[in-house]
Amino acid sequence: MKSTTASSDDDEGEQEQSPNIFLHSLFLLFFTGCYQSTGDTGSMVRQAASVHPTKTKPVAAPHGKKKKTIYLTFDDGPNKGTRHVLQVLTEEQVPAGFFVIGEHVYGSRDQQATWDSLQQNEWVEIYNHSYTHALHNHFEKFYTNDSVVINDFQRCSDSLHLNNKLVRMPGRNSWRMSTVNATDIVKSKAAADSLYNAGFIVVGWDVEWRFNDSMKLKQTSDEMMNEIDSVLLNNQTKTPDHVVLLTHDQLFKDSAEVSSLQKFIRRIKANEEYRIEFVSKYPGAVQ
Ligand SMILES: [Zn+2]
Question: Which residues have C-beta under 5 Å from ligand 1, the single-atom ion?
């Protein structure tokens, strides 16, 4: 039962204040342990909801009509696109999360300077995308060895002095948090479990702003917006009314792409139902 370190440690901290929370955490501990032993993935939200409706209910909107939350996430930085993304976020005053690669920070003097800018920007939260990006994209090999995986994420965390435990697995859309348990590629399931058991919160994505062979955006900003509208409307996200968008810093090297990003963010801001948040505010993404 030691396997739920991430959430149980936090819950233990709260038990002095409330016996109810302690009992609740005991239940969750038991439930999660039993659930994980079945080896199933992906349906934890639904199962948990039927037993504990308060746990997975969409968070009440504190901002009037803004009932739906969009989380912008940028992977693989710092690199040549990162500064442009930062400029747009700062101009538009919207929060975003950057899943950075440890060794990219040390890749060049320019990337180190970009890293400094990331750390100083109030609209940015920085998360862990491993130190070597799965041994330089050798995904299958990387994910066969749980301790290699944990060490690579821990190395990134230690080296960059990250102040949170949110991680994204390179090349894998897996989720491990108190409210969502999902695995896209079964061969990497054990690695995702190990990360969660080691105290990391694993964050995947609901929609991706993809790129083509020339590293240009595949969807226009309008098409991307329509996708967001559609998955929310049709309840195709991991948590109802919450959508995590994945894209990559390096797609925003040129002005056309930067304009698309700005236009996209302005469309979100213009929608009275939408708000943009840090991934640390996602339901269940608690330390
Ligand atoms: Zn990546």
Answer: 75-76, 170
* Whole-angstrom Cα Rg for the chain: 19
CB 98 within 8 A of CB 118: yes
Query: How far is the centre of ligand 1, averaged over its atoms, from the C-alpha of 133 (Å)?
Result: 6
3-state secondary structure of 189: helix
Domains and CATH numbers, the chain: 2-56 (no CATH), 68-281 (3.20.20.370)
C-alpha 181 to ligand 1 mean position (Å): 20
- DSSP assignment letter at 205: -
Q: What's this model's pTM, rounded to 2 decimal places?
A: 0.78
Q: Is 182 helix (H, G, I), strand (E, B) or coil?
A: strand
Assess contact for 163 and 190: CB atoms under 8 A. no
Q: For residue 86, how far is its CA from the centre of ligand 1 (angstroms)? A: 18
pLDDT digits (tens, 9 = 90+) for 220-273: 999 999 999 999 999 999 999 999 999 999 999 999 999 999 999 999 999 999
Spatial distance between the Cα atoms of 234 and 226, rounded to a whole number of angstroms: 12
Q: How remote is the CA of residue 26 from the centroid of ligand 1, in Å?
A: 35
Give the per-residue pLDDT at 65: 74
